[in-house]
Amino acid sequence: MFGLLQPNKEKVGRRLKLIKDEMNISFTEFGSRLGLKKPTISSYVQGYNLAPLDVIEKVAKISGRSVGWFYFGETEEYIADYLTLTGQGELVKEYPDIVKQIKEEFFTGDFKNPGWENEVGYPMEEFIDDCFSDFSPSILDRYIGKIVTQQIDESEKLKNLSDKEKGEAVAFVYQEVMDYVEMSGEVKYGEEEKVIRLVEDSISNLAKRGKIEFSEEYLVGRLVNILDDDAETARIISTLSLNLTGKAFSPLFGGKELIEIFQAMRPALMKLYAEKSRDELYDWFEK
């Protein structure tokens, strides 16, 4: 009946006791209403044994509570307990909103399916897994981004970089680390030491190269590199001008303002470069 997450008999007992106390009746009376002898209902209430489904269904009918509540508490508690059981406890603690998101998706999702419910009316574990896989990447992104920024700020190898160069280094290292994380699937939220090792490796490679060059596999990285150079920027403006007007552009007789305007896009492009995954860029340029 239950999946990976099993009811905690002590917690179930406390919930039964809460109902008994709300009804202001004795163990004997409580058991009588359920067709049970006092020792039996007492063993359930005190958490020595797990109350079976038929007993819980009777109490649920009497109390107006759901069967799921008796076995697992409120829906959010159930979701949080399951995620904790599957190794995501630290993430749930730091980002409790993910539990609310999964609950809202269960109750108001665009593709509501009765098959998502388990026997006690709560989200199936597979449903929670699917929702978590949809919602958690953005949290992991922020988690890794925070570590990248901190490590670059503290790095002795990059201490001579200007603020502008550090910003570029953050975007570059972040994307390099995220590429590895997405391809390997090996890094989970909370594995700080593993992320730090990846960041340190990327910083070491960056320090050896001495120059930040973004991947030019897709247009975004190519533009970031081009707009870092006045001559390259002028060249792309000229190409664009020829294609659109048939007239070339030359900075020899002015036009520096136009170059600066184009280069003003670079910070936004670096941000885009850092935020978008390879899969998303593939969808943009190849799919």
Automatic annotation (TrEMBL):
Top-level taxon of origin: Bacteria
Molecular functions (GO terms): DNA binding
UniProt xrefs under CDD domains: HTH_XRE
InterPro entries: Cro/C1-type_HTH (IPR001387), Lambda_DNA-bd_dom_sf (IPR010982)
Domain (HTH cro/C1-type) ranges: 16-70
Protein name: Transcriptional regulator
UniProt organism field: Enterococcus saigonensis
